[in-house]
Amino acid sequence: MDRIPILQMGDLLLVTIQVDMHDQLALNLQDDLSERIRRTSARGVLIDISSLDIVDSFIGRMIATISALSRVMDATTVVVGMQPAVAITLVELGLDLSGVRTALNVERGMKLLRRSDELP
Amino acid sequence: MDRIPILQMGDLLLVTIQVDMHDQLALNLQDDLSERIRRTSARGVLIDISSLDIVDSFIGRMIATISALSRVMDATTVVVGMQPAVAITLVELGLDLSGVRTALNVERGMKLLRRSDELP
């Protein structure tokens, strides 16, 4: 598999990370996601990482990059489903994902995005 | 990875198949899904297979089993995002997934489930 599917739900895009990320996969995801944001005028991006048991600085940087990329395209990124061990590792790695919004699960993430959409 | 994540959105569950299925993964998915349907009282299950380029009789049977399993637990299964080549292969294999509802993408699948929910 060399592409991670991006699901559209209204003006939100949902990406579920299930597999180990490698360089090409991460690059493809960035390309695909920015193209989809442009094409669908999406306002929000949900990245579900609930199936990640472990995380490294590569994943951390990828999430930060996707978030920055979405922001310049006027979409908000919310990372959902982070496991406690992953949260601990990210903080220990110094990757506290400042600027990236998080939510406990997809439902809360969607609510967060719908709410932020109402802001001016 | 030995488990496929199941995302909850309201009374719907969403499963995105991204990796090659093997026996244990399929069994785990059936266990997890039935447990989640029970716990969340979900009315619908969306299975996204948009990232599958090829399909074999194992996947076909797995989808049929999940659909039957959901049905006896009073939930409707909709398979979404099937690629043309996959559809052709399934029909050629004789697995026409009778009894399984399909939709072109997640949004349409969700609409289908919401609509069928209104039926008596």
Describe the structure.
Two copies of one chain form a homodimer. Chain A has 120 residues and is of the alpha/beta class. Chain A has four helices and five strands. Chain A has helices spanning 23-40, 57-72, 84-92, 106-118; strands spanning 6-9, 12-16, 44-48, 76-80, 101-103. In chain A, helix 1 runs parallel beside helix 2 (57-72). The N and C termini of chain A lie far apart (40 Å). At the A-B interface, strand 1 and helix 4 of A face strand 1 and helix 4 of B. Chains A, B: InterPro entries: Bact_StressResp_Reg, STAS_dom, STAS_dom_sf. Chains A, B: This is STAS domain-containing protein. Chains A, B: Residues 2-113 form the STAS domain.
Blueprint (SSEs and pairs):
Two copies of one chain form a homodimer.
Chain A: E1 6-9, E2 12-16, H1 23-40, E3 44-48, H2 57-72, E4 76-80, H3 84-92, E5 101-103, H4 106-118
Parallel strand pairs in A: 2-3, 3-4, 4-5
Antiparallel strand pairs in A: 1-2
Protein name (chains A, B): STAS domain-containing protein
Domain STAS (chains A, B): 2-113
Pfam family, one (chains A, B): STAS
Residue windows where pLDDT falls under 50 for at least 5 positions of chain A = none
Helical segment count of chain A? 4
- Indicate the mean pLDDT of chain A: 88
Percent range for helical residues of chain A?
A: 40-55%
Q: What is the CA-based Rg of chain A, rounded? A: 13 Å
Largest interface: A-B, 20 and 20 residues
Topology of chain A as a string of helices (H) and strands (E): EEHEHEHEH
Assembly annotation: homodimer
Structural class determined from secondary elements of chain A: alpha/beta
Secondary structure tally: strands of chain A: 5
Protein name (chains A, B): STAS domain-containing protein
Domain STAS (chains A, B): 2-113
Pfam families (chains A, B): STAS
